[in-house]
Each structure stands twice: as C-alpha cells, then as structure tokens.
C-alpha cells in the first residue's frame, strides 16, 4: 500500500472523527481517537514492513529466538485483547542500543541492545518498556495531539515527524515510505517515557523477570554513553539519575509480584 493514499484516508477520517478522553495506566487524562485502532494497527504494520525492507536483519538464529522468547513471555501478561494479536519480532543489525514496539503487535530490537541488556531480565526491561508504549495508547495519543492542532495536509505532517535518530525534519512534500516508518519510531514525550517505565517494569515482573534488573539496565545504558553523546534510547528519555531512583523504588514493591509469578510457574528461560 502506498503512503499517500493511506495518509489521505487518515486525513479524511480525522474530519469526522470525534476525539475522546481516556485515563492512562498512571491515572493521567489522555486525548485519543483521532484514528481508529484498526488504522493504528495498519500504520504500525506498514512502518514495520518498511523497517524490515530498509534495514538488514540478523542472521543469528540464537538472537532471534532470544528476543522472540522474551516478547512472548511479556505479551502473555497483556490484557486479553492485546494477547490475541499475532505479535511479531525482528532483530535489526545496528550498533545503536535501541528497540521499539508498534501498534498491531510489532517489536523491533537492534543488535546494539545486547551490549547493554546483558541478561534476559535486562532485555525484558527494554522490551516491556516498549510494549508499554503500545498498551498505554501512546501512539494514538501522540497522533491525536498533533492532528488536533492541524488540518488538511497538516495531518500528513503529523504522521511524518522527524527522521528517527537523525532529528532532520521531514516536510509533507518529502512524504514517502520512510516517513511513516519514522513517525511511528519517534521517541515519545518524557511523560510517556516515564509512564512506559511504570507499565513495563510491572509487566516484566508479572512475566517472571526480575524487576530489579531494570535498574542494572539503565546503569549499563549510562555507562555506554560516550562523552556527552548518549545512546539514542537513553538520550530521549527522562533524567537517568532520577529514573534509576524511581526504578529502584518500584522494584522493591514489585519483588513480591515477581516472586508470585515464579511460584505460579512463570520462569522464563530465554537465554
């Protein structure tokens, strides 16, 4: 499917769609509904397909099984509607320690993440965080917010955003396959990132991954930064020191959840 017709269809939908309010997993009010869930899933699937077409995927079967195992364990703890989606994961060859999840059940991991996520629990912290964005409706919220301030071709601009990892603004005249892809791969706001931390750390504990390892992951992320240039996944997120403190506090409260999951037989053995 070509991007321009799809973007036009989304624009047409916006003209008649009534946005709604909902409550996020942390209790804040969200404005959503500029596009339907079906369209979000379609956009996510298209962005994922374009990512796979443009980036080399690993030929390492062990890495692919490892990531898929963690994804399946986390997804098993999602609400029923999300569990019913045919989740798909891919591992892309890129040294950037990064990952993403998209509406429609798509998860991408860059091989660089293995340099900072040094065990399955730390990888689960990354993947659960990214899946947290999806189940917290962050993509819907972001598009709705942008679309609410725009009209006509501005709708297309809302889907374009800036090119992931480069920060170069795309214009509607440059709309193409990569544009939709990068719109869905843009980092969220710091509020959304903090919220995904909360959701993700809870999910990983429920799945049987040690929530305390989220702290170790972020310590590794900080150590991986070079000079003033932090890894992309780190630089777009809230203040690392404050984040680690919040993760530590939540981890203490989530240890009983993790222990209960293990007692119930949820003991992931992914790698």
UniProtKB/TrEMBL annotation:
InterPro entries in the cross-refs: Mito/Outer_Membr_Metalloprot (IPR051156), Peptidase_M48 (IPR001915)
Cofactor note: Binds 1 zinc ion per subunit.
Keywords assigned by UniProt, alphabetized: Hydrolase, Metal-binding, Metalloprotease, Protease, Signal, Zinc
CDD domains: M48C_Oma1_like
Signal sequence range: 1-17
Cofactor requirements of the protein: Zn(2+)
Domain Peptidase M48 per the UniProt entry, residue ranges: 63-250
Domain of life: Bacteria
This protein's record includes keyword Lyase: no
One Pfam family linked to the record: Peptidase_M48
Family: Belongs to the peptidase M48 family.
Name of the protein: Peptidase
Upper classification of the organism: Bacteria, Pseudomonadati, Pseudomonadota, Gammaproteobacteria, Lysobacterales
């Amino acid at each position: 499917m070509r991007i321009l017709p799809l973007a036009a269809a989304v624009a047409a939908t916006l003209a008649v769609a009534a946005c709604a309010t909902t409550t996020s997993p942390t209790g804040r009010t969200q404005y959503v509904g500029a596009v339907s869930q079906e369209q979000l899933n379609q956009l996510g699937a298209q962005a994922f397909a374009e990512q796979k077409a443009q980036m080399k995927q690993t030929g390492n079967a062990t890495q692919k099984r490892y990531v898929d195992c963690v994804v399946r364990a986390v997804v098993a703890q999602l609400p029923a509607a999300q569990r019913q989606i045919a989740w798909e994961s891919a591992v892309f060859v890129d040294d950037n320690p990064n990952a993403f999840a998209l509406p429609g059940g798509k998860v991408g991991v860059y091989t660089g993440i293995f340099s900072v996520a040094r065990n399955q629990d730390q990888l689960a912290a990354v993947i659960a965080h990214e899946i947290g964005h999806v189940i917290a409706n962050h993509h819907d919220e972001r598009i709705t917010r942008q679309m609410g301030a725009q009209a006509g071709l501005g709708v297309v601009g809302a889907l374009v955003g800036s090119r992931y990892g480069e920060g170069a603004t795309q214009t509607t005249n440059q709309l193409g396959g990569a544009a939709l892809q990068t719109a869905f791969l843009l980092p969220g706001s710091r509020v959304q990132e903090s919220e995904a931390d909360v959701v993700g750390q809870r999910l990983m504990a429920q799945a049987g991954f040690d929530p305390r390892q989220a702290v170790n992951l972020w310590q590794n992320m900080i150590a991986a930064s070079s000079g003033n240039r932090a890894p992309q996944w780190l630089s777009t997120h809230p203040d690392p020191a404050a984040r680690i403190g919040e993760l530590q506090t939540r981890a203490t409260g989530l240890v009983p959840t993790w222990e209960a999951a293990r007692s119930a037989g949820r003991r992931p053995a992914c790698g």
